[in-house]
Every structure is written in structure tokens, then in C-alpha cells.
Design a protein that fits this description.
By secondary structure, the chain is an all-alpha fold. About 95% of the residues lie in helices and about 0% in strands. It is built from two helices and no strands. The longest helix has about 50 residues. The protein is rod-shaped and about 80 Å long.
């Protein structure tokens, strides 16, 4: 009973807080997506570097 009275009187505050939580969660998901993209870039650069090294070894040795 106490909780329902609290909820009804502060519904706007709870809705704003839940919107804030959703925004924060979306921010975390975006940061995780950025980290995955950065990791993919590093892996791609690593494979390009290996390919160039292999080409150098084949050509000059």
C-alpha cells in the first residue's frame, strides 16, 4: 500500500529515472559497439601487417 501511494505521487520522477536508465544503457551499448569496431580494426591491421611481412619475406629471402 505504501509503495503504490509513493508510486502514484512520484510517477513523473520514476518515469524520468527510467528514461535516464534507458539512455545510460543505450550509451553503454554504443560504447561496447565502438569497442568491438575498434577491436575489428586492430585485427584487420594485424592481418594486413602479417600479409605485408609475408610478402616481404617471400620477395627478399
Amino acid at each position: 500500500m505504501n509503495f503504490s501511494r509513493f508510486y502514484l505521487s512520484n510517477r513523473r520522477l520514476l518515469v524520468s529515472f527510467s528514461h535516464l536508465l534507458v539512455s545510460f544503457t543505450l550509451l553503454l551499448v554504443s560504447l561496447a559497439d565502438l569497442l568491438v569496431s575498434f577491436s575489428h580494426l586492430l585485427v584487420s591491421l594485424f592481418y594486413i601487417d602479417l600479409f605485408l611481412l609475408k610478402m616481404f619475406i617471400i620477395r627478399y629471402i
